[in-house]
Amino acid sequence: TMTGTAELVQMGASAPITMYQKEPNKMRIDVDLSAFAAGLTFTQAFDGTKGWGTNQQTMVIEEMNEAQSKDFSHQAIGNDALLNPQKLGITYALKPKATLEGKDYVVLEQTLADGHKTSIFIDPSTYLPYKTVTTTLDPMSGAIVETESYAGDYRKVGGLMVAHSIRALASGTENMRITISTVTYNTNLDDALFIMK
Questions:
Q1: Quick check: 10 pLDDT over 90?
Q2: For 54-63, 117-126, 138-147, 161-170, which range has the lowest pLDDT when averaged over its residues?
Q3: How deeply is 133 buried, as exposed, middle or buried, from its count of CB atoms within 10 A (0-12, 13-18, 19+)?
Q4: Contact by Cβ (8 Å): 42, 55
Q5: For residue 54, what are the β-bridge partners?
Q6: Which of 74, 145, 78 is nearest to 114 (CA)?
Q7: How many other C-beta atoms are found inside a 10 Å radius of the C-beta of residue 195?
Q8: Is 44 exposed, middle or buried (0-12, 13-18, 19+ CB in 10 A)?
Q9: Read out DSSP for 121-172?
Q10: Rg (CA), the chain
C-alpha cells in the first residue's frame, strides 16, 4: 500500500492518492477528490480477472470494457514480471543504449504474453528504472496513446528501493506528478478491496 499526493497538472490541483497492489495481479488506485465534491473518489481497479472504476464522464462506478480491462491489467502484474517472467510468458530483450539528459541508459524491452510492449530505461549507476515508455488507451477517447513515466527519489523501504516521485506523461504532455509519503508491505489486504461493489 502506497499513499501520497497526486498533482493533477492540467487541472492545477492536487489530491490524496492511495495505491494498493496484491500479488499476483490485483491493483486498486483511489484518488480522493472530496475537495472538489463531498465524498467523491476516483477509482481504478483490477480484481485479477477484470477491471472496473469511475467513468471520467459520468463519475459513476462501472465495469471497464474488454479493451480497457486488458489495458489496465498490464499495470496490475506484480513482482513475478521480474522474478518469474517465464511463468507469465513475459520476455525481455536488450535494446541499444539511449542517451537521456546527457547520460546513457540501459534499455530493456518487456513483451507481455499478449504482445504488449514496454521500454524500460535503467540507470547504469544504480540499476534502478528511471523511465518507462508504453502505450495505453486514453480513457476519454479510447485512442491508443504513448505514455511515459519517470521514477525518482528512490528510498529503501523494507530492504527494497522504492521510487517516491513519479511523473506521468501522455502523448508528450505531463498530466500527473505523484509524491509518495508512505509505503507498507504485507498488510493482508482483503480480496474484497479489489472487487466492484
A1: no
A2: 138-147
A3: middle
A4: no
A5: 61
A6: 74
A7: 15
A8: buried
A9: EEPTTT--EEEEEEEEE-TTT--EEEEEEEEEEEEEETTEEEEEEEEEEETT
A10: 17
Cell numbers standing for residue 86: 517465464
Read off the pLDDT band of 111 (50, 70, 90): very high
**Angle formed at CA 98 by CA 171 and CA 9, multiple of 5 degrees:** 30
Largest CA distance in the chain: 50
Would you state the cell numbers that stand for residue 112, as one nine-digit string?
507481455
- Residue/partner pairs of 51-55 with CB below 8 Å, 24 or more apart: 52/196
User: What's the pLDDT tens digit per position in 19-49?
Assistant: 999 999 999 999 999 988 888 999 999 999 9
Q: What is the mean pLDDT of the chain?
A: 95
Residue 60 cell numbers, joined: 459513476
Kindly state the average pLDDT of the residues 128-151. Answer: 91
Buried b (16+ CB within 10 A) or exposed e, 81-98: beeebeeeebeeeeeeee
Tell me if 135 sits within 8 A of 147, measured CB to CB.
Answer: yes
Closest Cα to residue 167, out of 143, 131, 136? Answer: 131
